Amino acid sequence: MDKKHQDLFIRTVLANWNLAIGRITSVFDRQSDADLLQPIAPGKNRVVYLLGHLTAVHDRMLPLLGFGERRFPHLDELFITNPDNPQAAIPAVAQLRGQWAAINQLLTEKLSALTPEEWLAKHESVSAADFEKEPHRNRLNVVLSRTGHVSYHHGQLALLKL
Amino acid sequence: MDKKHQDLFIRTVLANWNLAIGRITSVFDRQSDADLLQPIAPGKNRVVYLLGHLTAVHDRMLPLLGFGERRFPHLDELFITNPDNPQAAIPAVAQLRGQWAAINQLLTEKLSALTPEEWLAKHESVSAADFEKEPHRNRLNVVLSRTGHVSYHHGQLALLKL
User: Fold this and answer.
1) For B31-91, where are the alpha helices, taking DSSP H only?
2) ipTM for the complex?
3) What's the pTM value of the predicted model, to 2 decimals?
4) CB-based contact (8 Å) between B128 and chain A?
5) What residues contact A136, with CB distance under 8 A and at least 6 apart?
6) pLDDT digit string (tens) for A88-122?
7) Which of A17, A37, A84, A104 could, after both became Cys, cross-link A49 (CB 3.0–4.6 A)?
8) Residues of B with Cβ-Cβ distance to A153 under 8 angstroms
9) Partner B contacted by A18 (CB < 8 A)
C-alpha cells in the first residue's frame, strides 16, 4: 500500500467520524433549547443528557489520544458518572452546544494531523506491555469506537421522530 | 506504513465490525422469541423488525462489496421497503436469528480475505467516473458505515433495559 493509499485509508475513517458527528449535530440543531429538555422516550434520558454525555466522552479523548489536557472535565459528574437527573442543575443548553462544537473541532484538527504510524500507536489507557500483546488498542480503535458511540446515541434520538 | 501496519489497520477495522455485531447479537440472544415481538419503546419498531432490517441490510452488502449474489433478498419488502407492521405475516423468529448469524459469518469470512488494496477498491454502487472524484467510496467506507448502522440500532435496543 503506497502513501496515497495510506492517506485514503485514514481519510475514509475521518470522513466517517465527521459524518457521524455531523448527523447527530443536525438533530441537536433542529431542536430548540426547550426541546432538548424532553426525554427521548417516556422515562428515558433527556436529549440534553445525551448532548452533555457525548461532549464529556469526546473531551476524555484528548488525554486518551495524547492530545493534551481536558477542556471540560466538570461535565463528567453530571453526564458520565451519574444517570440523567431532571432535578439537578445543569449548564445552559447554549453553552453545552458550544462545547460540543468546540471539542469536535479540536479533535478533528488533531486527528487530521496524525501520520499513519501515529494512528496505529498505542493510546494512553493501555500499558506498553499490554499493547505488545494487543496492538489493536491504538488510536484508530478509539476513533472507530467513539464513532460507533455517536451512532448508538443518534439511533436513540431518531426515536423522537419515528 | 509497512505490511505489518497495513494488516493492523485492517484488523482494527474488522475487530470493530465484529464487536458491534457481537454486542447487538447478544441483545437479540438474551430475548425470547416472544420478547422480540415487543416494540423498543411505545409505538416504535418491534425488536424483530430491527433483526430483519439488519439482516436485509447486511445481505445487501454481498453484491455491494462484490461478494456475490444475495442470500435473503425476500427480506427487503418486509424489513426495508416497508415500515414495521405488526399485522403483516413475518418469517419465524428462529429463522431470522439463523439468517442474521449466517450473513454475518459469510461477510466476515469474505472481509477477512481482502487485501489492503481490495479494501480501498470501489464498491459496486459507484461508477468508475464518480470513484475517480470520490475515492473514499470504497469497501472500507461501506464497512465503517454499516458498523455505525449496527450501533445506531443497538442504541435503540438499549432503551428496553434503561
Assistant:
1) 47-64, 75-76
2) 0.95
3) 0.95
4) no
5) B8, B11, B12, B15
6) 999 999 999 999 999 999 999 999 999 999 999 98
7) A84
8) 155
9) no
